[in-house]
Amino acid sequence: MAANSPLLAWRDPIYIAGGFAGIAALALLLLQPLLVAGLLPGAPRAIGRKIHLWSGLLLVVSVVLHVAGLWATSPPDVTDALLFRSPTPFAVWGVLAMWAVFGAAVLGLGRKRLALPPRIWRIAHAALVTVVVVGSVLHAVQIEGAMGSVTKLILCGAAVLALGAAFLRLRSWAAFQARTASGRRS
Amino acid sequence: MTRFNPTRRRLLAAGAASAGALILPGLTVPARAAGLAPTPTMRGGANNYRPGAPIVERIGGGGFLMSGTVRRAGDGAPIAGARIQIWAHTTEGHERDWHSHGATLTDADGVFRMDMPQIVPAFGQAHGHLAYDSDGFETVFLRPVMARSSDTALEAHFVLKPA
């Protein structure tokens, strides 16, 4: 759908690549919770969690490419966004989601090294990815870009549902309950 | 039961507050009567600005109309011969491209019109950029957003403050 957008005819390759990196990141947001919760057919939780790590890195790379592609196209617009002074209402959500996804990735990579109590780690990772998904959706839906508005809404809705489904499956709220004798920690 | 038993200090404070409430509106009305306020520079308005773009008949092939007025702050008198520079991401190029930039002058009524290529959404919004950047008045950068990206015209109005 996005590849057929008439807008692409009036854009440089690097701008197009930057935009599509953003779309890839949005698609990975849908995939990430499904993987880690073992909700994808053919990927039970043990396998899904391994893929979750790698696709998480891919998500970070996509976000970096998204920002880099836009920066190459118009440095002052990206500088404004990163400094939270952009005139557009959606830039701030994208930048918030970017920092949250970096934070969630650092937690993911440093799970052993940071040696956080598992409860704290779960709450922090869950809180950060919630900011990522909510921020990204608010960012994406307000943008007039290459994506079709219907496919964009469907993808955003699916990402929110997937996050909710993963929280339910993984009983994420259990981390908030003070040391219950829960044997279902993942 | 509570009784109204104000101290002298409280009575004085209350009196001063009510007097202020009566006087303050009187103080703010003359400020409004002083006239037209200058247009502030918009956030992001100066992005991809290229100083000194040439005065042109039209930018590229044309087909999209950017227009507006330039007036003086205070009395609102039209400013003739004001140089307005215009740029945008269009069907013919990015904002940073030199050929996307051009300038025009206002007529005797302070009106400017620029024929330019169709503006297309860039960085999430279909928008244009305008600058007043000459001597005589303070520099102002505007960044109007189109209501619909299918629009074929966009307006922006300047009220300038003498430099």
Question: What features would you describe in this structure?
Answer:
Chain B: Keywords: Signal. Chain B: GO terms for molecular function: iron ion binding; oxidoreductase activity, acting on single donors with incorporation of molecular oxygen, incorporation of two atoms of oxygen. Chain B: InterPro entries: Intradiol_dOase_core, TAT_signal. Chain B: This is Twin-arginine translocation pathway signal. The complex is a heterodimer of chains A (186) and B (163). With 186 residues, chain A is mainly α. Chain A has one domain. In chain A, 69% of the residues lie in helices and 0% in strands. In chain A, helix 1 runs antiparallel to helix 2, helix 1 runs parallel beside helix 7 and helix 4 packs antiparallel against helix 6. The N and C termini of chain A lie far apart (37 Å). With 163 residues, chain B is of the alpha/beta class. Chain B has a domain of 97 residues: Aromatic compound dioxygenase (Protocatechuate 3,4-Dioxygenase, subunit A, Sandwich), CATH 2.60.130.10. In chain B, 16% of the residues lie in helices and 25% in strands. Chain B is built from 1 helix and 8 strands; from the N terminus they run H-E-E-E-E-E-E-E-E. In chain B, strands 1, 4, 7 and 8 form a 4-stranded mixed beta sheet that branches. A 4-stranded antiparallel beta sheet of chain B has the order 3-2-5-6, with no helix packed on it. In chain B, a hairpin with a 7-residue loop joins strand 5 and strand 6. The chains are: A mainly alpha (186), B alpha/beta (163). Chains A and B meet through helix 3 of A and loops of B.
